[in-house]
Known about the structure:
By secondary structure, this protein is mainly alpha-helical. It has helices spanning 3-21, 34-60, 65-89, 96-118, 127-148, 161-214, 218-223; strands spanning 151-154, 157-160.
Amino acid sequence: MNLPNSITLSRIFCIPVVLWILSRSFPLRDVHGVPELIAASLFILASATDGLDGYLARRRGQITTMGILLDPLADKLLIASTYIALVSYTPDIVPVWIAVLVIGREFLVSGLRSIASSEGFTIEASDLGKLKTVVQIVSVAAAILAHRWPQWELGYWTISMSLIARMAVYWVAVVSTISAVDYFIGFWRKIDKASETSRKRKPFVLSRRKKAVENPTPQDALIK
């Protein structure tokens, strides 16, 4: 297994670890701030590998079928699992409907890309999609930290981590919705072009058959 695929698999292996840290069975659960710091740091590290494995795969010429399959799967599992956990961990920050919206959007885009691939074209990540990914990382990390530190006292300044987390989570909902519509519009335009190309090819095939009938061979004449 090459290095990019190994990095992708490490992102998948981080998922149960993050969930375990956020659970009640974590040994350091009662140590002030330790679970939150470890979980947030591990989530950010795992999310950062998303760009790293793709970059290395392109740079080293190691783009494989396994990597194409695992990379989006790892992203979807990481986001879906953490948002589901946060519904229970910080219900006042991550409402159920936002978790459903975010997870539904991820699987919708995955479905569109699968259909696009079967039709012979691809849907590349848009700028809105990339912005959504960044805001998701901020929202998850902030929601985890806000569980232990709703406010940070920095000298004369007070930073409301709870407010930052709420704003990031609702911003994720907005960007996820807009980017999903953007992906769907892009998909619809390309699928129309693919269908139009397919329709144009059919008359060409039929015309060849027609010519073959208009100029029958002696064998064809005998058959008639």
